[in-house]
Amino acid sequence: MKNKIRIGCGAGFSGDRIEPAIILAEKGELDYLVLECLAERTIALANKRKMADPTKGYDPLLERRIKTLLPHLVKNNICLITNMGAANPIEGAKKVVEIAQKQGLKVKVAAIHGDDMNDKLKSESFEIFGNEDIALELIKKHQSPVTNNQSPIISANAYLGIEGILEALKADVQIIITGRVADPSLFLAPMIHEFGWKTDDYDLMGKGTVIGHLMECAGHITGGYFADPIKKPVEDMDNLGHPFADVFPDGSAIISKVEGTGGVINLQTAKEQLLYEVINPFEYYTPDVIADFTSVKLEEFGKNQIRITGGSGKEKPSTYKISVGYKAFWQGEGEISYAGPAAYERAKLAGETIEKRLKSQFEEIQVDYIGISSTFGNEGFGNRWLSEVEAPISEVRLRVAAKAQTQSNAALIGEEVEALYTNGPAGGGGVRKYVNEVIGIVSVLVDRNKVLPQISIFKS
Predict the structure, then answer these.
(1) Tens of pLDDT, residues 417-446
(2) Could you tell me the pTM of the whole model?
(3) Is 83 inside a domain boundary?
(4) Are 245 and 346 in a shared domain?
C-alpha cells in the first residue's frame, strides 16, 4: 500500500481551459489526473448529439484534450479518469484509442457505462427526487414525459459511483472514460484502489468524498470563481493553476497547485468550495456514501497549501439519482442597442411596442434592459428604482425573449426586434436574433439494484 497518492483536477466543467491540465500532467508529478466535465444539462445535450449521430455524444473537447494530454500521461505514467464519455463513453473510449494509434502510443482504455436509463424510465415507476412540489409543478407546466409522454425524453442517466472505475483500475487501465459518474466518485475510486479501503468503511468513504468535493471544480479552489478585485483579489488570473491533492491512507489530504501558476489556495477558497452545492452538510448524498461535512477541519499548511482532516459518513443510499432531460420548450430572443440622448427611453418604447404586438401570442414575454435591469429587474441593485438614477443613461441594449411551443413561433420574437430597424423608435442598431430549443431537467430516484455499471476495455 502506498503512503501517499497525488491526484490532480485538470477540468471542472465541459468548457474548461485545456492548458491547466497539461501543466498538471507535465509538472505536477501526479499519479492520477481527473477531468470532471459533466453537468445535468451537459449530458442531456450530449444525448441530443448521440441521437443525431450514434458515433457522437462524448464530450465535444475530448479529442482536443486527449491529443495534447496523451503524450504527457504516457511519459509520466499518469492514470486519467474522466467523465468525458458523457452520453457515449464507448465511442469516447474508441476515439481515445484512435488518437493513441495515430500518435504511436500504447494505452489501455476502459469505458464505464450502464448509466443510461432511458429505456427503463419509460417502463418503470419512479419516485420524484427532492422538492416534490416544485418538481411536480415543473412536470405539469412543461408536460414532462415522466408522467404523460407528451414531450420526448432526451436523456435519463443514473449517477453511478466508484464500482466501475474500481474494476477498471484493477484491470490496470491507464485511461478511464465514464458516462454519468458522481463528481466526487472520480477522485474517491483511486483512493480506495491504492489504499485498500473497504467500501463499507463509511468513515473513510466520507473523508475521501470531502476531498473529491473540494477538488471537483478545479479552478474554484485555486481562486477562480472566488475572485473579486475589490474584496478578494487574486493574482495572475490569466495563468490560473488547477489543484492537486496529496492524499494519505488515513483520509487526510493537502491541496496545492503547481508552483509558478496563478491563483491562490487558502482557507477562504477552500471554505467556499466546501460549501458549494451543499444543502445539508450533515448529509451530503453520493452514490458511495452519505457524507457528513460538519467535522471537516481546514488549516493553512503553507503558501497555497490547505490541509484537510476530518469528515465522516454513513451507509450509502439504496437508490441512484437519475437526471432526466426532456424537450421543454422553444425560446425566441432578439436584441437591439440604443445609444445617445434618451437611449433608455427609446429602448423602453421599443420593448413596450413589442409587448403590445405579441402579448396575445405568448403567455409571458421577458423584456430586459441590459446594463440597467437585466440582472436585478426594474428595482435595480439595492432596491433603487430606475427613475431615481441621476446619471443620464447614454447606452442600453434591449433584450426580448419568450417561450414557445414551436420553433417557427419562437422565431417571431427575433423578427419583431429586427423590424424595429425601420418601424422605430429611432436609432436602433446591432440586432441579433436567436431561436433555441430549451432542455428541461428533473430528477428521480431508482432502486440501485436496477442499475448495473458495466466496463468495456480497448487497447491501442
Answers:
(1) 999 999 989 999 999 999 999 988 888 888
(2) 0.90
(3) yes
(4) no
